[in-house]
Amino acid sequence: MHILLIHQAFAALDEAGGTRHFEMSSYLAQRGHRVTIIASPVSYLTGQSRLPQNRWLQKESPLPGVTILRCYTYSALHRNFVHRVLSFLSFMLSSFITGLGVGGVDLVWGTSPPLFQGVTAWLLASLKGAPFIFEIRDLWPEFAIAVGVLKNPLLIRLSLWLEGFLYRRADRLIVNSPGFIAHVIARGARWVELVPNGADPHMFDPSLTGAPFRAQHQLAGKFIVLYAGAHGLSNDLGVVLETAQLLRAQASIHFVLVGAGKEKAALIAQAQALGLSNVSFLPPIPKQEMKTALAAADACLAILKPIECYKTTYPNKVFDYMAAGRPVLLAIDGVIRTVVEDAAAGCYVPPGNPAALAAAVRCLAADPAASRQMGLAGRVCVEKQFSRDQLSQKLALIFEEME
Hints:
- The protein is α/β, with parallel strands linked by helices.
- It is built from 15 helices and 14 strands.
- The strands form two sheets. Strands 3-4-2-1-5-6-7-8 form an eight-stranded mixed β-sheet, sandwiched between helices. Strands 11-10-9-12-13-14 form a six-stranded parallel β-sheet, sandwiched between helices.
- Strand 1, helix 1 and strand 2 form a beta-alpha-beta unit.
- Helix 1 crosses helix 15 and helix 8 packs parallel to helix 9.
- The longest helix has 20 residues.
């Protein structure tokens, strides 16, 4: 089967970000399928493009059976909402034109957000007479409305209409969290499959100490609380800085924030204004190097704003943390809290509460043995329930049913 994936924010192992789709595409190729991925050359974390200047298209072949076509995209993800929409629209157009030139397609796999690339996937599936699979990774536009990014009433109405239009036209709709199922059914999805987020346990080694990473960043002897991911409005990292301020007297505790995003410059300025010597900001790390960074952590942090709809999410980073055998400090309520608590893999704290987060950090730092046990319990949970190979097999079976 030849599968065409349209995914603006696709990340390979040599890039920072979630690599769910690279790992699943690799599995599909190993199973004998051919996967062509049309992606943006612009990193959604850094905003930097890997496309040479004055080039429209770049072809990459990272693995046998997997081809990546990176097509021109307006590079403005970290400016403002208008520029972000222009970036999304530019990819919608360029990916459609690129997709027209891909022959012998048996199935088109679209993914959202951004929702616009779902239009490309639907159109290409229609023109090629192929099934249209639509995957929902976040509830857009609901999340954008909730966080205040999408405010214009007309744009909200148009976005909600487009969401329902695509849901109704998908031959199958895939969600990566059980929390999304009720939402997509209510908006017209006809056939919903759950293929949850997870992690590849082989990418991580719980026995590592992370000594090289600690030495490189002058963190030897510290209790490291590490956050890895986007520095955006939704991530509520200002709460982490407030927590660091509450813990500044405990010199052994240090926060490490790895990643990039629209809010990073403001967060750095805030940390400097507060005189926080117990916080380090590091650039994004390619997925293939995350093993070393997570090995250096004593606890790993997942955090989102205290917004009701975020209770539906299964953040990728939580499963990476668990696969690395590190306890999860979880400032997100809802379905992911159930996973962490059922696995005894970490500590839940109410979102938006620096005092509660500081207390949880103190608790983990005071009991290394208990922290270690939480981390190992999380690793076991991933191996049994959220292994990428198991989840990729489920995805492959869904695709093969539609052949």
